[in-house]
Design goal:
flat; 4-stranded mixed sheet; alpha/beta; 11 helices; 5-stranded mixed sheet; single chain
Length: 364
C-alpha cells in the first residue's frame, strides 16, 4: 500500500484492509471522500462486532438479582434480610410507632355514646439513595476471535454484576451485624466459655437460652422475630451443638441438626445463611479472605418482598434498578475496547430498630 494510504490509516484509525479494498475498487477517488467512506464502513464493522458479542451472550446475561458470576442465589441473603423497595420521589417512607400496636385503650363506649379518641403515631423519615457502579474493559478483538462456546461479553457482564452484588451484601451484613443498628436493650455479647464453639469439656454455652430466652423474649423487642441470620461457621456450630441436638430430640451426639429442625428448635420461619466471603486485602498481591457475615447471630423480623407499608427490620430503597450500558473507546486496541458499566442506586436502612436482636461474638 502506498505511503500516503498508510499515513491515512494512522490518522483516521481505520482498519487498513478497508482502505486497501476501497482503493482497489475505485482507482479514481477523492482523498476526503475515501476517508469518509472508510470511517463509515469501519464504524459499521465495529458495531457488527459488538452486536455479535452481545448476541452471543444474550442467553446468559444475568438479569436476576439473585444470580451472580461468583455466587449463586442461595449464597447471598441481602435481598431477604433487607428487601428491595422502589424509591419514591420524596425520598421518604412511612414509619409507624411501636405504640400503635402496644397501647391499651378503653374501648368501651360511654353511656352518652361517646367513643375514646386516638391518633396514629406516623412519621415520614427520609433516606438518600447512594449511586454504586462497577465497570469492565472488554477487548473487542478478543471477543471477535473467540468461539461461540466462549461468552466473553457475558462473562464481563456477570463479573460487573457480581461486584455490585457482593458490595451490597457487605453493606447489608455490616448494617445487620453492628450493634448501633439496634434499639437499646436489643444487643448482647457472648464471651469465654459461653461462646458456641467452646469444646464440651469446659463449655457453659447454651444457644437455646441465648436465642429463645435472651433474644426472642427481650422486653425491648417490639416485633415477632421470625428469622435467624448468621454466617456459615456460626450455623455449623449451631447444627452440631450438643444442646441443640438434644433439643431437636436426638440422642446421637455425632449427628447434625437440619435447618428444618433449627427452625422448630428456635421458633423461626427462616434460617438465613450468609456463606459469602470477600477478599479483605483488596487489590493486594496476596488475597486474604474473610466472612462477610462475621461471628454474630441476628434474630430479625423479616418480610421477604415487603412493600413500602409493610414493617420489617431493614429495607433497601432502590431509586434506579441495576442498569448496564457500554461506552466505545476506538482509540485502544486493534478493534477498540468496550467499557461495560453497571450501576444501581440503593440506600439500605434500618426502619424498625426494635425489630431485631443481635448476639455478638457467639463464636471466637
Amino acid at each position: 500500500m502506498p505511503q500516503m494510504f498508510s499515513d491515512l490509516c494512522r490518522r483516521s484509525k481505520v482498519d487498513p484492509r478497508i482502505i486497501e479494498r476501497l482503493v482497489n475498487e475505485k482507482r479514481d477517488f477523492n482523498l476526503d471522500d475515501l476517508t469518509r467512506k472508510a470511517r463509515v464502513e469501519d464504524a459499521e464493522r465495529r458495531s457488527a462486532i459488538a452486536q455479535r458479542a452481545y448476541a452471543k451472550s444474550a442467553v446468559s446475561v444475568p438479569t436476576n438479582p439473585g444470580v451472580s458470576f461468583g455466587y449463586e442465589a442461595g449464597d447471598l441473603i441481602a435481598d431477604l434480610v433487607s428487601p428491595v423497595v422502589p424509591g419514591s420521589i420524596e425520598r421518604k417512607y412511612p414509619l409507624w410507632s411501636r405504640r400503635n400496636s402496644s397501647r391499651l385503650l378503653n374501648t368501651q363506649i360511654a353511656g352518652d355514646g361517646s367513643i375514646s379518641e386516638t391518633s396514629i403515631d406516623l412519621t415520614f423519615p427520609t433516606y438518600s439513595e447512594v449511586p454504586y457502579g462497577a465497570k469492565q474493559i472488554v477487548d473487542l478483538n478478543a471477543v471477535a476471535q473467540s468461539s461461540d462456546a466462549i461468552d466473553l461479553m457475558g462473562a464481563h457482564m456477570a463479573a460487573v454484576q457480581s461486584d455490585l452484588m457482593l458490595s451490597r451484601e457487605k453493606r447489608v451484613a455490616d448494617l445487620i451485624m453492628t450493634g448501633g443498628s439496634y434499639a437499646s436493650g436489643c444487643t448482647s455479647a457472648l464471651a469465654g466459655t459461653n461462646r458456641w464453639d467452646v469444646g464440651p469439656a469446659t463449655s457453659t454455652a447454651d444457644p437455646i437460652k441465648d436465642i429463645r430466652i435472651t433474644a426472642k423474649s427481650a422486653v425491648a423487642v417490639g416485633a415477632k422475630l421470625n428469622a435467624l441470620a448468621a454466617s456459615t461457621p456460626v450455623l455449623e456450630y449451631l447444627r452440631s451443638h450438643p444442646k441443640v441436638i438434644a433439643a431437636a430430640g436426638a440422642s446421637a451426639s455425632a449427628r447434625v441438626v437440619s435447618d428444618d429442625e433449627l427452625k422448630r428448635v428456635f421458633g423461626v420461619e427462616y434460617i438465613l445463611e450468609g456463606s459469602a466471603k470477600y477478599d479483605s486485602a483488596g487489590n493486594a498481591a496476596a488475597a486474604s479472605y474473610a466472612r462477610l457475615w462475621g461471628t454474630g447471630c441476628a434474630l430479625l423480623a423479616v418480610r421477604p418482598g415487603a412493600g413500602l407499608n409493610q414493617q420489617c427490620f431493614s429495607k433497601t430503597f432502590r431509586h434506579t434498578d441495576l442498569t448496564f450500558r457500554d461506552v466505545q473507546d476506538d482509540t485502544r486496541g486493534v478493534r477498540g475496547m468496550t467499557i461495560l458499566i453497571g450501576t444501581v442506586e440503593d440506600d439500605e436502612v434500618v426502619v424498625m430498630s426494635d425489630g431485631g436482636y443481635l448476639l455478638t461474638t457467639v463464636v471466637s
